[in-house]
Write a structure and sequence with these properties.
This protein is an all-alpha fold and 69 residues long. It has one domain. Helix content is 75%, strand content 0%. It is elongated, with a radius of gyration of 24 Å.
Amino acid sequence: MAYTTLDETQIKGLFKQAFEELLQERKDLFYELIAEIIEDFGLLRAIKEGEDTAAVDREEVFQILEGVS
């Protein structure tokens, strides 16, 4: 069995090439990943903003969602 020795630059180049091919071939996965990250950041921001507000009764929330005044 023959062995090949790769230096750090060659390994980085191979990983970069593989990543570029992945992005080209599976753009849908990349876009889904980015969308998930954006949603997670939005949720995190909403949670942090919610920590600084007063608590609201569950029934009041449902009344607002149902359009009842």
